[in-house]
Amino acid sequence: MDTRNKKTITVLMVLVAVTLSFIWAHSFMGMEESAEESGFFYELLCPFFEFFMGEGNVTELFIRKLAHFTEFFALGLELMLLMKLVFMKMGWKILFNSWVLGTFCALIDETIQIFSGRGSQIQDVWLDSAGCMAGVLVMTGGILLFRKKRKAKQ
């Protein structure tokens, strides 16, 4: 493995750690603090989503669930790229392992919420898992497109 790949892997590992710290820190928030933060983002994002979904169709619950999906989408992107660089090959095992690792992180996330006095929901694990899988698939598509473009240049 060359020095550039080692540096990239190190940066990606730090990025995954930062992403997980962000996700899990939010799970440690109490109910009031979490509701306050959700309210802030609802006020911020509501006009944008109402443009597409219609006035009155955007709820705070929608924004909260979108946050779950988005956090784990980013984690899925990072995990897939990290696995690809570490194992230097593509295949269904890399995709599957990236998704399983992300889903395990979602289980930890919901377990943290049990101890922070918030309700843990299995539907959030499924949503997080779907977000992770979407990130894994998007990154896989990006890697394949990059490969195809690089081969065409040669």
Describe the structure in your own words:
The protein is mainly alpha-helical and 154 residues long. It has one domain. It is 86% helix and 0% strand. It is built from 5 helices and no strands. The protein has helices at 3-27, 31-53, 60-87, 92-115, 122-153. α1 (3-27) runs parallel beside α4 (92-115) and α4 (92-115) packs antiparallel against α5. The mean pLDDT is 90.
Rg computed from alpha carbons, rounded to a whole number of angstroms:
18 Å
Q: What would you call the shape?
A: globular
Residue ranges: pLDDT <50 for 5 or more in a row? none
Instruction: Determine the structural class based on helices, strands and strand pairing.
Output: mainly alpha
- Which band does the percent of strand residues land in? under 5%
Mean pLDDT: 90
Total DSSP E strands? 0
What order do the helices and strands follow? HHHHH
Biggest sheet overview? none
Give the terminus-to-terminus CA distance. 22 Å
Q: Determine the number of helices (DSSP H or I, runs of at least 4 residues).
A: 5
Give the proportion of residues in helices. over 70%
